[in-house]
């Protein structure tokens, strides 16, 4: 007769069962592997195994970080090692002896490098841990990190930087999950949310909305734009182009010449004296899906002003980038941000308030310019969907997107031309109906 609390299913476990089971007890699979479910809902993979004649239990981590397939693979490897006279338990103890969280973070990133969408994503992932987690958790052995240690990292920023803190928690959990699977720690993951930190920290939705990047006030735009035109350097030109296209910094910094189609304007060899109006009638920048946040190709209608910037840039034979760094690589995000920061510092030194977000009074940043564009488009009466497409945002439901095949490129071209005029301080009234007939 089976002992109370032990359930032996007729068939091996399934991923669906692992995901949905709530009944406390031990749910067996094979090779001594079973899923232990606690009364509070937490789950842990455990393997019952005989090592050198002694019966032992090995913790293999917790789902969903450790899937059923991964747990089975680990259990099979442990069983094979034990059958050959090895001691997987001792190996795990030795591996855990000296690995710190900082070392685990490096090993995790090395193992997961190919899964990151791009280098910027990896750097953001790593920077969050370096800034907030490493000072507290870095020197600690992963085998010794507790829930209280994780709380020391999260609590100081959970209220003021909720979205950042939430991402940080997930990243700490991922590193510790890797450490468990790699044999550097055992037991439940102290950074797990459900049934763990969820009982100690308020829900993200209850604390704060997403942190909006400081945006430039519409009233300050012409003055800021004129100020930017006086700035020299590749980063300043990249910031100008970013503003004209309402693109993300990473999209502009990673732009290569082969993504550009100047259309009719290719016939023009521009100089500083070339009238802007003659430069472009159908110029387009196509950002490949691999460089887009939403994973979809995005076309940008380039205005004459944007083309004028591009035509005046030197093309380097040693770099594919349109806005290269001095050594030929892509500009860093901080390089463009530094332009706006220096503009603000100049204003402050002159005793002027500078370029502040009208709501939170913080200095505007490059990403906030997208919000400035969105506010301008709304106030000028441009269709919501068209403005959202210009920002490369998803619009509507999956069904609506399936039927909305047009990206309104030519209608957006008219809108972006009006935006360029607004940046230059031309206060003429844009007529929305002027482009109502075009649907391309």
TrEMBL record:
Keywords: DNA integration, DNA recombination, DNA-binding. Signal peptide: none annotated. GO terms for biological process: DNA integration; DNA recombination. PROSITE patterns: CB, TYR_RECOMBINASE. Residues 347-366 are annotated as: Disordered. Residues 99-180 form the Core-binding (CB) domain. SUPFAM superfamilies: DNA breaking-rejoining enzymes. The keyword Iron does not apply. Residues 211-416 form the Tyr recombinase domain. GO terms for molecular function: DNA binding. InterPro entries: CB, DNA_brk_join_enz, Integrase-like_cat_sf, Integrase_catalytic, Integrase_DNA-bd_sf, Integrase_DNA_bind_dom, Integrase_recombinase_N, Phage_int_M. Belongs to the 'phage' integrase family. This is Integrase. It comes from Rhodobacter maris. The lineage of its organism: Bacteria, Pseudomonadati, Pseudomonadota, Alphaproteobacteria, Rhodobacterales.
């Amino acid at each position: 007769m089976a002992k109370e609390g032990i359930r032996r299913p007729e068939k091996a476990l399934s991923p669906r069962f692992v995901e949905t089971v709530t009944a406390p007890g031990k749910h067996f699979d094979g090779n001594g592997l079973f899923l232990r479910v606690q009364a509070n809902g937490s789950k842990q993979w455990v393997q019952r195994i005989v090592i050198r004649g002694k019966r032992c239990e090995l913790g293999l981590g917790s789902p969903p970080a450790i899937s059923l397939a991964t747990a089975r693979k680990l259990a099979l490897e442990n069983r094979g090692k034990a059958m050959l006279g090895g001691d997987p338990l001792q190996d795990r103890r030795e591996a855990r002896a000296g690995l710190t969280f900082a070392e685990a973070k490096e090993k995790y990133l090395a193992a997961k490098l190919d899964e990151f969408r791009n280098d910027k994503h990896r750097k953001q992932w790593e920077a969050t841990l370096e800034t907030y987690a490493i000072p507290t958790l870095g020197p600690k052995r992963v085998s010794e990190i507790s829930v209280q240690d994780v709380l020391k990292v999260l609590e100081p920023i959970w209220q003021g930087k909720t979205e950042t803190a939430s991402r940080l928690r997930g990243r700490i959990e991922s590193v510790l999950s890797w450490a468990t699977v790699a044999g550097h720690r055992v037991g439940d993951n102290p950074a797990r949310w459900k049934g763990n930190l969820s009982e100690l920290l308020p829900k993200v939705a209850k604390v704060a909305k997403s942190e909006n990047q400081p945006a430039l006030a519409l009233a300050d735009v012409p003055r800021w734009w004129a100020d930017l035109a006086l700035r020299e350097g590749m980063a300043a030109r990249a910031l100008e182009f970013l503003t004209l296209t309402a693109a993300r910094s990473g999209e502009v910094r990673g732009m290569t010449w082969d993504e550009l189609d100047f259309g009719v304007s290719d016939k023009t060899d521009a100089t500083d004296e070339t009238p802007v109006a003659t430069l472009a009638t159908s110029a387009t920048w196509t950002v490949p899906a691999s460089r887009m946040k939403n994973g979809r190709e995005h076309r940008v209608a380039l205005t004459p002003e944007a083309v004028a910037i591009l035509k005046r840039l030197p093309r380097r034979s040693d770099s594919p980038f349109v806005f290269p760094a001095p050594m030929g690589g892509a500009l860093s995000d901080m390089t463009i941000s530094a332009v706006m920061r220096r503009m603000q510092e100049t204003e402050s030194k002159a005793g002027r308030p500078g370029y502040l977000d009208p709501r939170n009074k913080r200095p505007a940043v490059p990403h906030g310019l997208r919000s400035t564009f969105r506010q301008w488009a709304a106030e000028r009466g441009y269709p919501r969907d068209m403005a959202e497409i210009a920002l490369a945002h998803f619009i509507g439901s999956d069904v609506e997107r399936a039927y909305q095949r047009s990206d309104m490129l030519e209608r957006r071209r008219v809108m972006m031309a009006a935006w360029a005029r607004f940046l230059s301080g031309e206060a003429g009234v844009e007529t929305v109906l002027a482009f109502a007939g075009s649907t391309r």
